[in-house]
Amino acid sequence: xxxxxxxxxxxxxxxxxxxxxxxxxxxxxxxxxxxxxxxxxxxxxxxxxxxxxxxxxxxxxxxxxxxxxxxxxxxxxxxxxxxxxxxxxxxxxxxxxxxxxxxxxxxxxxxxxxxxxxxxxxxxxxxxxxxxxxxxxxxxxxxxxxxxxxxxxxxxxxxxxxxxxxxxxxxxxxxxxxxxxxxxxxxxxxxxxxxxxxxxxxxxxxxxxxxxxxxxxxxxxxxxxxxxxxxxxxxxxxxxxxxxxxxxxxxxxxxxxxxxxxxxxxxxxxxxxxxxxxxxxxxxxxxxxxxxxxxxxxxxxxxxxxxxxxxxxxxxxxxxxxxxxxxxxxxxxxxxxxxxxxxxxxxxxxxxxxxxxxxxxxxxxxxxxxxxxxxxxxxxxxxxxxxxxxxxxxxxxxxxxxxxxxxxxxxxxxxxxxxxxxxxxxxxxxxxxxxxxxxxxxxxxxxxxxxxxxxxxxxxxxxxxxxxxxxxxxxxxxxxxxxxxxx
Length: 487
Known about the structure:
Elements: E1 9-10, E2 19-20, H1 36-55, E3 59-60, E4 63-64, E5 66-69, E6 74-77, E7 80-82, H2 87-108, H3 111-116, H4 118-134, H5 137-145, H6 150-175, H7 181-189, H8 195-215, H9 217-223, H10 226-229, E8 240-243, H11 245-248, H12 273-276, H13 297-309, E9 316-319, H14 321-326, H15 330-337, H16 340-361, E10 366-372, E11 379-380, E12 386-396, E13 402-410, E14 414-420, E15 426-428, E16 432-444, E17 450-460, E18 473-482
């Protein structure tokens, strides 16, 4: 079945030498398959969707467990609350994700694409709905070839209705990680969604419907950049989907009880199952191709045929180029997989994960920024002391209220350094920030002018001892300005 999209043409020589600028897309009808790898794909589809749709409804300390509140600039991740100042942790997460992708790709190819990529997952879900409504591969091909009828219109409407409902629910859930989902559900139920929430629900719903329902393999082949640069991470010892040409060729049809060797044939019966089950429509027998997403559907399909024919499984299997060429067994292949590149990726990934975990573990949930009042660098008060004005921005990132005391210290050149602020201790609510104006006074020696370093210490007055810290306390430095004698 061929789509009705028309190709663009160019004329390299003349009007009679038209050539297509791109190949017309042929609609792919993947055949359902069962097997070990299909079971893994189903497990990951269920696990990822339970996590995605379910986590948004979990509660933690009376609020949504996982919420990226862009308006308040707070990220709630279960018991952890991150602020814009914690951007370093997002950087660490991106580095860990990139290193994990490099490691998994170097070891076993496109595992992410084949099992956990949202495009793959939602395409699997949409194809399952399509099979339930329209039937198996043959029935779907026949239905598309029929003239328009009430039956065909009803089946197509039912399929697209389910697709749109799932896509909108997906968009709603995604937006629910940025706007509290219970609030979002209440607004949706009363048709009072705000313009931005409505836009993003429809946008992500449309993207899901279009990518998983219509474009499918076109996203993987033409839109996803990973298919293009993956070869930079492959080498002859990377596990990929391989066809054992030495065992399978020459291919050809034969009866179930025929002697293939007597007929001069290999184990491949040329049934085409590997092509029929492929979601991107490639023939893996032609070798590794960039369109292959590593889903291993062809492995399951081929193994089913091998079982029916009484042949050993593994004509198409996960293996490496070296293992197939040199006839290595599984143990030899695994030993070779532990090569320097993989070990380096593993060590670096482990170091980054441990460092990020340790940083989160010892992270002090108190942040202090000290800002000088630049309108008045310094002034002399009635009793002859020098006074500087500061604004302290104190952020309590814990989900419990704290009372804080503020103190100041400096060098020996600043005599009787003291701080004047509102009554202490100062209370700051849970996951809140407060701006506090403080005045610092000192009696400097008469022969000194310029600036001196001072230190503000904000310490919780009610904090219990923690196993990794004595108390909740932060010290920040600033500068105390001393005017010259002529001022």
